[in-house]
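Chain X:
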Amino acid sequence: MKQVYKILLAGLTWATIITGCSKEKDVQEEGTQDPPVLAGTYNGNFSRTGMATTDITIAFTGNNFSGSSTAAYPVICNGTFTINTNQVSFTNACNETGAIVLNGTYNYTLLRGATFRIWRTNNNITDEYTITLAR
């Protein structure tokens, strides 16, 4: 009987050690997630406070982007971008004076699957791009 208790105690000790040790956390702490990868062609729309919504396409390759709009705005052209855990910054090669250009720093949210909401607000005017990875 003494042998059974020793085996049982050894098993419980082993189970406690195994479940208590972990090389990685199963869930990352908020604010420590890696930014998503923007890669591929995305279709969606652009809206600005007080203006009509327009259809857009943006293609991301590496840290480069290019795109188009079905209207005169926004001007997307091409350039580079960087993304971190809560913002994406665009540097556009277009130099359109007075036009709405995809340029500068925006907030983003991953809505579902591969749909992104990219926006910024300045003086009560919000520019918003909602794009979904084309399948």
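Chain Y:
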Amino acid sequence: MIVGVGVDIVDVPRFKRQVERTPALVERLFAVSERGLAVRSLAARFAAKEALVKAVGGPNGFRWHDIEIVTNEAGRPRYVLSGLTAETVKQHGVSTLHLSMSHDGDSACAFVVAEGAGAGEGDEQ
């Protein structure tokens, strides 16, 4: 069952200006493994983090560093969740996250489908 979907788009030049104006933003928003990436890739990852929050239903229980986006050898992205964010996603009944990211020109976007039983559903009593 689809628990939720989320989509987000980021204006790459605007994101770049924000990062240049406030360099600490990169440390605040991204895991250590993500920080050395190109600005357009960071923008896509930020969109992926925002899309996850939207798919699950709101910002409560999410921490930026608890959401890491990694890619496999073929470049397919996936979430690695930890801490409070992992607990929050699990509490919402999400068992699988499907992620797609893209960037072209001045835009970076991400789309996520959260799949699972949903909060309170599928629990046997």
